[in-house]
Design goal:
alpha/beta; Dihydrodipicolinate Reductase, domain 2; 6-stranded mixed β-sheet
């Protein structure tokens, strides 16, 4: 079994290598692919040094699987080349998610639709993944009509540069210097992120929403296989290094018993219920850090509208929101003999 990780030196690519090792994925040979400036450098995988190679070298080595986290433009260019060589691609960018010919997969929800003919498989947006894990079992029981979600997303969702910006601004604050008065420094965002919240993730569209917000709308419908679900999203960046949080309001067609609903979530795969407000137990980025599960709490009825629920969802965006979900797709493909 040969596996290629394309974008192996990035934040998510590095996490993919970590998760592959942790989950003992049966990789006899690991091929690490990165940009031209990184070729020849070495990275660690399972306590061994492996050299970074070019995409062309990786294709020539004919791995059965290539996991991409190298950005949309790179995926659009390289993923078809890998696929044409008979290599199954799992892509973490937004490049293929809404392509009608490509499957968008959260394994606990819809992995069963995959076939051996699917050579490019899309990994959803991090915020969508954690939300649909909660929505899916509830939709099967009560049928969802409408979802209103506000996200509180960590800076690691933007990348290394954003984490560096926040930590630099934090150091400035500790030294009594306001970030906006600190002169020029390398910024991932238009504004300071530390001590701030920025209601702007990705670019704004003509409808006033951002691409990130519309990803949540469109990807949710595709993964759930139901275009009738209405989704309204507001996505906000906050000064947390890792872990995305979401406040989600769900309107169902059918009424629900709150005890039964909690039990449905308690047994849902990949979901952990943390909902004991008497003892201050609820999901937080701090406690979700470096975990693969999605956590849900603050589960309560919306008293202002019939058949409606409020809840709070938290997940590690680099793990279940990206790397772990991709590796779980790979595990499913391997277990069901979908790889060449």
């Amino acid at each position: 079994m040969k596996i290629a990780v394309v974008g192996a030196t990035g934040l998510v690519g590095s996490k993919m290598l970590q998760v592959l090792a942790e989950r003992n994925f049966p990789a006899d040979e690991m091929l690490a692919v990165a940009s031209e400036k990184s070729i020849g450098k070495e990275i660690d995988f399972r306590n061994k040094k492996i050299k970074i190679i070019s995409a062309a070298e990786a294709i020539a080595a004919k791995p059965q699987l290539a996991i991409f986290s190298a950005g949309g433009a790179t995926s659009l260019q390289l993923a078809p080349q890998f696929a044409d060589a008979g290599i199954t691609v799992i892509d973490n960018s937004s490049a293929w998610r809404m392509d009608p010919g490509k499957k968008l997969i959260v394994p606990e929800v819809n992995a069963s639709i995959l076939t051996k003919e699917d050579k490019i498989i899309a990994n959803p947006n991090c915020s969508t993944i954690q939300m649909v894990l909660i929505l899916h079992p509830l939709h099967k029981k009560y049928k969802i009509k409408r979802v209103v979600v506000s996200t509180y997303q960590s800076v690691s969702g933007t990348g290394v540069k954003a984490v560096a910006q926040m930590m630099h601004e934090r150091k400035l604050t500790e030294n009594g210097v306001a970030a906006e008065n600190a002169g020029s420094y390398d910024m991932a965002y238009k504004y300071a992120i530390d001590m701030n919240a920025i209601p702007h993730i990705d670019t704004f569209l003509d409808n006033g929403y951002t691409k990130e917000e519309m990803k949540m709308v469109n990807e949710t419908k595709k993964i759930m296989g139901d275009d009738s679900i209405r989704v309204s999203a507001t996505c906000v960046r906050i000064p947390v290094i890792g872990g995305h949080s979401e406040s989600v309001n769900i309107e169902f067609e059918n009424d629900f018993d709150i005890t039964e609903l909690r039990e449905i979530l308690r047994v849902a795969p990949g979901v952990v219920v943390q909902d004991d407000v008497t003892n201050f137990v609820y999901p937080m980025p701090l406690t979700a850090h470096d975990k693969d599960e999605t956590f849900v709490g603050r589960i309560r009825r919306d008293d202002t509208q019939a058949n409606t629920l409020n809840c709070w969802i938290v997940s590690d965006n680099l793990r279940k929101g990206a790397a772990t979900n991709a590796i779980q797709i790979a595990e499913y493909c391997l277990a069901h003999e979908l790889l060449n």
